[in-house]
Design a protein that fits this description.
alpha/beta
């Protein structure tokens, strides 16, 4: 990590690739004025990662391979 980075934003997502592009647009827009890095750990359920890498070259995409999850998550809040 570069010494001049003041902020790290980590965007986590599982199986929600269609929402990721919109999220990244907003995050990049917000952090663009700061010395920041955006990191997206993504598993094999996220579609379109190659296109997102091209669209957001400043974002670091971490390939997590296959991540087993239990879905849907059920809590009192939803």
């Amino acid at each position: 990590m570069a010494a001049d980075i003041l902020l790290s934003v980590i965007v986590t997502i599982v199986g929600g690739g269609r929402f990721l592009r919109r999220c990244l647009r907003h995050v990049v827009e917000q952090v663009g004025q700061y010395s920041a890095e955006v990191i997206v750990p993504c598993d094999s359920t996220v579609e379109g990662i190659d296109e997102l890498k091209q669209e957001f070259p400043a974002v670091t995409f971490l390939d997590m391979g296959v991540v087993e999850t239990t879905s849907p998550v059920t809590t009192q809040s939803g």
